Amino acid sequence: MMRCPPFSYRAPTTVDEAVRILAGEGPRAMLLAGGTDLVPNMKRRQQTPPVLVSLRRVAGLREVTADGASVTVGAGLTLAQLAAHPLLRPWTAFGRAADSVATPHIRNAGTLGGNLCLDTRCNYYDQNYEWRKAIDFCMKRGEGGDGWAMRNDAPQGSVCWVAPGSKRCWAVSSTDSAPALIALGAEVTLCSTAGKRTIPLADLYRDDGIDYLAKRPDELLSEVRLGDPSGWRSTYWKLRRREAFDFPVLSVAAAVKLASDGTVLDARLVFGAVASHPVVALAAQKLVGARLTDEAIDAVAAEASKHAKPLDNTDFSLGWRKRVAKAYVAGALRELRGDDPSLLGPHARRAAALRPF
Ligand SMILES: Cc1cc2nc3c(=O)[nH]c(=O)nc-3n(C[C@H](O)[C@H](O)[C@H](O)COP(=O)(O)OP(=O)(O)OC[C@H]3O[C@@H](n4cnc5c(N)ncnc54)[C@H](O)[C@@H]3O)c2cc1C
Q1: How confident is the model at residue 6 (pLDDT cuts 50, 70, 90)?
Q2: How far apart, in whole angstroms, are the C-alpha atoms of residue 197 and residue 189?
């Protein structure tokens, strides 16, 4: 049986108290929400924070509030609560992404904040301590697993086994909700003892498998804000080996704002699980002013999929995932055009079977 390394447990009841603890403890402390990712990581000695600051009792993180047409979503809500929430129905991609995470048990415990701040993943990192020791560890996390290594001072190995000549870590962003929320133009609020700041969700992520968040260790992600959904349609397609539950190895979040005559007024495409951060495909803007014809969709799918450059450190073969990226973009856009999902192949049927907001 794998056990967690020793840690001290803090249980604040307000956001102010939580951020004061974070400020006092520095990078020794990590926030614990549902624990569905952090606790297994601690057992495998991938992350070994000496202090855990639990969000379980923190008030004010579990509400969805509507303000006109926009909504603010508390970071402490579980994925199951989000997938079923009536106020979130207009943002289809978000509901589907939340509903596609892991299993019902995990969605009942895992939170939005934890999903957005999820550690990056890699075949050479998501292994137990002995497995990683046998390959002399990797760049993302080196030796030192049984000690009191601080998260930010955790010893790094020297080699990225995915690309041994590389000076950087290529671990992959595998969160489902982030690509969907970026495609929906979401913003996030970060709190610390210095105050609050709100940034576009896309700016929360850095292209670095180790230092993957632009959030400081003393900041708590308190809420996500979604703007007016009027005129927008969105969807989320996810590729994984087991449909019952699995992390994405490729995902496409697509959102288009259509005029009443079907002209595209705005469009966003975001790939998940193809890099260390969710990848925004600017090619989506080429749809603006056009209609979603087969020709326009195929041209944008071909160009957008060039942004998806998956590495050989997750599941399935690299070349095949690249080809699927193009097919997923085209399929997602056809779905948003109004094509019958049952005619768009098995991936479309699976996407539509997820929480059908
Ligand atoms: C078998 C299995 C399958 C899974 N499949 C998927 C999947 O398909 N898709 C997917 O996206 N995930 C998957 N996960 C990962 C995980 O369950 C989810 O991402 C979940 O949403 C994480 O939320 P949590 O509340 O449990 O986070 P925790 O494990 O508590 O925390 C995760 C990270 O977020 C930080 N954090 C948590 N809350 C905040 C906050 N409010 N502010 C700042 N930092 C915060 C923590 O410090 C930690 O670094 C899977 C996990 C397992 C075990």
Answers
A1: very high
A2: 6
Rounded to 5 degrees, φ, ψ at 319 are -60, -40
In the numeric block, which tokens belong to residue 309?
């450059």
How, if at all, do strands 8-10 and 51-54 pair?
A: parallel
Q: Is the CB of 179 under 6 A from ligand 1?
A: no
Separation of CA 299 and ligand 1 centre (Å): 36
In angstroms, rounded to a whole number, what is the distance separating the alpha carbons of residues 336 and 320? 24
Would you say the CB of residue 316 lies under 6 angstroms from ligand 1?
no
Tell which atom from ligand 1 comes closest to the C-alpha of 75.
Answer: 41
pLDDT tens column, 180-236: 999 999 999 999 999 999 999 999 999 999 999 999 999 999 999 999 999 999 999
Distance CA(304)–CA(327), nearest Å, equals 11
Of 216, 307, 223, nearest to 268 by C-alpha is: 307
Each as own residue / partner, the long-range contacts of residues 343-350 (CB below 8 Å, 24 or more positions apart, any chain) are 347/237, 347/239, 348/237, 350/238, 350/243
| Residues making up the chain, counted from first to last | 357
CB distance 36 to ligand 1 below 6 Å: yes
CB of 173 within 6 A of ligand 1: the answer is: no
Q: Which amino acid is at 85?
A: H
**Rounded to 5°, angle at Cα 19 from 81 and 185:** 50
Q: Hey, what amino acid is at 158?
A: S
CA distance 154 to 151: 5
Counting from 1 in the atom list of ligand 1, the atom nearest the Cα of 37 is 29
Domains and CATH numbers, the chain: 1-57 (3.30.43.10), 233-351 (3.30.390.50)
Residues 269 and 5: their CA atoms lie apart, in Å, by: 41
Q: Identify the weakest region by mean pLDDT among 138-147, 159-168, 301-310.
A: 138-147
Atom of ligand 1 nearest to the CA of 240: 8
Question: What is d(CA 308, CA 22) in angstroms, rounded to the nearest whole number?
Answer: 36
